[in-house]
Design a protein that fits this description.
By secondary structure, the protein is mainly β. The protein is built from two helices and 33 strands. A hairpin with a 4-residue loop joins strand 22 and strand 23.
């Protein structure tokens, strides 16, 4: 059984330690004119109503963290209440719930090239989640819809009504799965499976109440779900068989809260199952059917993240990025190797880091 998130060559570890070692101290620099092709972007959702969503750019090649990079490049605010960030093809897409639009951005420069609004009956709908499939961006909308947007024309090609709020989505086994997080103000009790091409609803699958986070491992078509509960029951960690469309509750996981898949059929899960000031721990599972727990926790060097709000994995290197919500106006991101060894951390410069995407060479990692 594997005892680390993914296998990682020693040279990759040394490169990242060398290029990021300076990021613990000192202010972030301003964006440079160098074409940005290697590193990451992190979406800071900001505070609803304050129009303060922002992007933080991590350039691992030149050891630079650029805070508030969108405003610096574009001369304006990104928007209000950022919910999700997606890198697909040669563009990035940001779902801005408060602004009710999707920002389309060139990742090499962070320049906004377009905005997209999804309308129904004359009103702009509220984007809250993003996914991609074969040339289309798939958008979950708070009003209970899923839209498909053609990446060539940036036009909406399909709009499908579903049950509840699709606050998270995942593509697995050539199918699109969406959460029914809340239905008529109450915790939902199902996820829905859609055809990702025409968005027709293929099946409704019963799950534990409050389905919130979906994560797929594309290497073996496994799918995992965290449900937050209904206020009377605990949250639940579930495995979904994408062939049989059956759900299994992984019962030995108490109070799951966050998760992310790596490229080596492993999954790191954050659980809030302790009452100490740190509030929880990180556990590693295999993503094989049944999700076997790996011996020992993920972080093994004595370091910790006090208030995690997101986990993101660089599929090219296997390094694990854990976001921490530390205040209304800034957050932190902690970087670990695939073996759970702390590398460094940095201040995002804006509040509520909630999503991350990674670039490798001249193209984005999908």
């Amino acid at each position: 059984m594997k005892k680390h998130l993914i296998s990682l060559a020693a040279v990759s570890v040394m490169l990242l330690v060398t290029t990021l070692s300076c990021m613990d101290e000192g202010p972030a620099t301003e964006p440079t004119d160098i074409k940005f092709t290697y590193g990451a972007y992190f979406l800071n959702g900001g505070n609803a109503g304050r129009n303060d969503a922002e992007l933080t750019q991590l350039n691992t090649l030149y050891s630079i963290v650029n805070q508030n990079v969108f405003k610096a490049v574009n001369g304006k605010a990104l928007g209000d209440d950022g919910k999700d960030l997606l890198a697909y093809g040669d563009r990035m897409y940001v779902a801005l719930a408060g602004s009710r639009r999707i920002s389309v951005i060139d990742p090499s420069s962070c320049k906004e090239s377009a905005t997209i609004k999804v309308e129904a009956e004359g009103d702009n709908l509220t984007p809250v989640s993003l996914a991609a499939f074969e040339g289309s961006i798939l958008v979950g909308l708070k009003e209970g819809c899923v839209a498909a947007i053609d990446t060539a024309t940036l036009k909406v090609t399909s709009l499908q009504t579903i049950e509840g709020e699709p606050v998270d989505m995942a593509v697995a086994n050539q199918k699109l799965y969406v959460t029914n997080y809340r239905v008529d103000g109450q915790p939902g009790t199902a996820i829905q499976m859609l055809n990702p091409v025409d968005l027709h609803v293929m099946k409704t699958i019963d799950v534990r109440p409050g389905p919130r986070y979906l994560t797929a491992d594309p290497t073996n078509n496994t799918l995992f779900l965290i449900s937050e509960g209904d206020g009377n029951g605990e949250s639940a960690f579930q495995y979904i068989d994408t062939d049989l469309e059956e759900v299994s509750v992984i019962g030995d996981v108490v109070k799951p809260a966050l998760m992310a898949a790596g490229p080596d059929q492993s999954l790191v899960v954050y659980v809030k199952d302790t009452d100490d000031e740190l509030g929880g721990r990180f556990i590693v599972f295999t993503t094989s059917p049944g999700a076997q727990k790996v011996e020992g926790g993920f972080i093994r060097d004595g370091s910790y993240v006090r208030n995690p709000c997101g986990i993101f994995v660089d599929q090219a290197t296997g390094n694990v990025y854990i976001a921490e919500k530390t205040g209304a106006d800034y957050g932190n991101v902690f970087i670990y190797t695939s073996y759970g060894q702390y590398i460094t951390s940095f201040n995002t410069g804006a509040g509520n880091p909630c999503a991350g995407v990674f670039l490798s060479g001249e193209t984005t990692v999908k």
